[in-house]
């Protein structure tokens, strides 16, 4: 069907070209027009004039397509006119029949590569090539077909639209291009549609604008959408070509969610020994919005603990932090209630009706009892005593009491480091301070000592003087005589001003209180702390000095009684757990077993081998047929090859007696005198014989010969005679060697005699 359509279109174009030509020719035939009445007008003659021809693109027929036909008025059909074609594509794409003037396209044309071609035609004399008419220019236009699909040049696309947008909110516009001719037919007329992304989004068919299609799309429920848009040419009708692109649409956040506490009531607790500024607890309201839309501000709005607690916000975690504002007392009040509010600081007016954008929660804080140290009734004590008063003179009495519910009795003591020379003592029961020796005013006018009060039955809590966390009160002495006008101020030295262990409070009465900021001091970690204190007087000019307060960590006995605050050696516990002891014992047993086994093996190696009666003793004997280095010589040859090869056949001749039969000699192996043959030639000849002997063992071996070298003064030491020797050996001399060789003499002598007797019997 497609091929037929192209053929009809080509025929139509050819007919259009011919019609244009005929119409033009008819104009040439009517060369005369009537002008004014009775007057004939003449004009110059022109052979041809035409505007343009058309040829369809992408033609793939078997024959060249006819573009059109040229014909001149001077052509009478006799064949003397020759048509010539020049210009773009002449001779390669377009060819002309020089006789008929028919123009054909020889190649497939693509309008998207070149939409038209400009050519020049001329009629010349075939014989002389002289122009018969001036050249004429014409245009061949390539007619478009729908051979290019739409394309999205900038895809994939990314777009953002606020959540909760109204229906029809514009998201973005996508545009496709079509390389076909937009001025011809519907090949480049595009229509947009949505293939994926419904029912959330829609697209305008003519413009490609994407819009929201559903209301109240919530980012917290779904944030991203993948949309597929299609562009189709031919006005979207069947048969049109199409192209698609992807659009990723992200919903941006708006403040459409109020903050919400996860609990309605938050229980917290605080110990009464906590100091102001310490954290009590945290809570957080959740807001699913992002960025500034999800920020939550907190504040305390009600409760009986507003004066005791304060609230701040952690800038990193965005949590509400409840801190202690004032110290609490378990004996006074044991429960506090707070109401906290969390609200959004940034509210979108578009969604204000969805509010309120805040939430409330209740905090219940319970106070925990702490075993507090005793508290002195007075912050400081000043006593006077006459100089040279006898030992035991009362100076004054201090009094402290336990503020806990238990109201434990109090024991008093003077830390030795505050009264190094021990001028005073204190009654542990009633706090009465007495002298231990007469005092000299001229030697020392003031004595500053500290008295420690400790609850009986506990070592953890002791108190010096006044406040719950006061451990010492210090004062100063100035040798200048300023009477009652003398005044001192105290402060921590700059290098320890921000330490986390101790603080100082100037009492504005020429004394200062030293506070402990934490608990859990351990002598194992650190037993002495040094606290530099700067003291200023009110003289002119003002003078100052820095003194160091030494603070020692005291030790207690098993009954929690304070023993000493002096430096003492510490003995670390060296006890081991039951599991560790068992593991150590197991290792010791294993080591002992290994040692015993090793010793037993060493002893077993030294004992001789036990020979059982049923075993053949010859199994432990390796026989050699040589007189070399013996069984210790294992480097020069293979021991296995030296064993008697006859044993493989089951015949094991005795080596301790002379054999009855002698094996026949091989050819060429007769005895050779040692003094007549060179050793080297002798060995070479034996090697050659062994190599050529088919009865030789099938393995490499050392040939053993009864030759002991040339010029030896000693005879053979072997008790065995060479198989090549025919003489008999006489062993009678063994009888003369004594009782130790009797067994050997009987063995060889008897055997030989019996053999000789047998031989004599045969001879006789």
Automatic annotation (TrEMBL):
Leader peptide range in chain numbering: 1-20
GO biological process, one term: calcium-dependent cell-cell adhesion via plasma membrane cell adhesion molecules
A cellular component annotation (GO) from this entry: catenin complex
InterPro entries according to UniProt: Cadherin (IPR039808), Cadherin-like_dom (IPR002126), Cadherin-like_sf (IPR015919), Cadherin_CS (IPR020894), Cadherin_Y-type_LIR (IPR000233), Catenin-bd_sf (IPR027397)
Residues annotated as transmembrane: 580-601
SUPFAM superfamilies, sorted: Cadherin-like (SSF49313)
Molecular function as annotated in GO: beta-catenin binding; cadherin binding; calcium ion binding
Annotated ranges, domain Cadherin: 72-152, 153-261, 262-376, 377-496, 488-571
Main location group: other
Membrane disposition: Single-pass type I membrane protein
Pfam families: CADH_Y-type_LIR, Cadherin
Domain of life per record: Eukaryota
UniProt entry tagged with the keyword Glycoprotein: yes
Localization, UniProt: Cell junction, Adherens junction; Cell membrane
Alphabetized UniProt keyword annotations: Calcium, Cell adhesion, Cell junction, Cell membrane, Glycoprotein, Membrane, Metal-binding, Repeat, Signal, Transmembrane, Transmembrane helix
Chain's role: Cadherins are calcium-dependent cell adhesion proteins.
Protein's recorded name: Cadherin domain-containing protein
Gene: cdh11
